[in-house]
Design a protein that fits this description.
Strand content: under 5%
Helix content: over 70%
Number of strands: 0
Largest sheet: none
Structural class: mainly alpha
Radius of gyration: 20 Å
Shape: globular
């Protein structure tokens, strides 16, 4: 079918662009690295590299950071696509339910106490999970939750987390404020271990793709989905947990990076439609490409100084999303 062929071509193109974005991330920087040196660094032959400097830069610095950026961008885009199906709201994104706010409170609290980087990551992950459990528990109450109740609960919890973040920043000593602000705006300079994000990405796709048909039906409404045999309550719970975990791992690794989970699913949906069987992997690839290229710009555009990657994703995301809004039919549903 032409539609299926087009979707496969889009995914293939995105996969190639993903490899290209990783290659650019490995080559660009204060020390330019040629394609030949990248090949020698990745495949273990450093005979042509003077003192192995380029190989060390690629292996120890750029490769882990590029993989972490790609995996976290993919996780945020995947979580955004799932949240938009779950809430049936085109404005939903991974941070709408207070997950990022909880991670921020946990991470900044650990920084305020002067804890090592490992415990800062642990605090971020613990805070994200705590916010997830709080939102889900409060939204559920004594009965089943609805999209509106879940969304409103998430907004309130996010507001509370924002107040806690402001309190921490107001009492933090000046020598810690810069690191805190960089974390809040997204910072991949300390992302030396991409393995958790890569593992979560693989598990997330493996968990979501088998239920993509049910997600297509859920996007049409609860009544239609139930009539066609979809276990709506269990599917909702699973989607929420999966999106929350994906966001928690991404935020723990990169800090609070916005707009990836909001804009990327929209762009992919315009290109290939709303079939979740194709949309989910395509959105993950596109999100990985966006964050990898944004991080490469963040560390090279004013080198040797580095910019917070979240600033660049916002500068890209805001005009793109405004453009998408102007393309949307007035009064139409997305």
């Amino acid at each position: 079918m032409p539609t299926r062929r087009r979707a496969l071509l889009v995914i293939l193109l995105l996969a190639l662009l993903g490899l290209a974005s990783l290659a650019i991330a490995l080559a660009a920087g204060s020390l330019p690295v040629s394609a030949a040196d990248i090949g020698r660094a990745l495949f273990g032959d450093t005979a042509g590299d003077t003192e192995g400097v380029a190989a060390e830069v690629v292996r120890s610095l750029r490769l882990p950071r590029a993989l972490a950026a790609f995996a976290c961008g993919a996780l945020l885009a995947l979580a955004g696509a799932l949240m938009q199906v779950l809430l049936r709201n085109p404005l939903a994104d991974p941070y709408v339910l207070g997950i990022s706010g909880g991670a921020s409170v946990g991470a900044l609290g650990a920084m305020l106490l002067g804890l090592p980087a490992l415990l800062v990551h642990g605090g971020a992950f613990g805070g994200a999970l705590a916010a997830t459990l709080l939102v889900f528990g409060l939204a559920r109450g004594e009965g089943s939750w609805t999209q509106t109740r879940l969304l409103l609960t998430g907004v309130i919890v996010a507001a509370g987390c924002g107040a806690a973040v402001a309190l921490i920043l107001s009492i933090a000593p000046e020598n810690k404020l810069r690191g805190m602000l960089f974390w809040l705006m997204g910072d991949l300079s300390h992302a030396a271990t991409p393995a958790p994000a890569l593992l979560m990405l693989a598990l997330g796709l493996l968990a979501a793709l088998p239920f993509s048909r049910d997600l297509n039906l859920l996007a049409r409404g609860d009544i239609t989905a139930r009539a066609l045999g979809v276990p709506v309550a269990r599917l909702r719970g699973g989607v929420y947990v999966l999106a929350a975990l994906a966001t928690a791992v991404a935020v723990t690794t990169t800090g609070a990076v916005g707009f990836v989970g909001l804009v990327v699913p929209h762009l992919v949906r315009l290109a290939i439609g709303n079939d979740q069987r194709v949309l989910l992997p395509a959105a993950a690839l596109a999100g990985g490409i966006l964050l990898t290229l944004a991080d490469t710009l963040a560390r090279t555009i004013v080198a040797p100084q580095q910019l917070p990657v979240g600033v660049l994703t916002a500068l890209i995301g805001v005009p793109v999303f405004l453009y998408l809004l102007t393309r949307s039919p007035r009064g139409g549903a997305s």
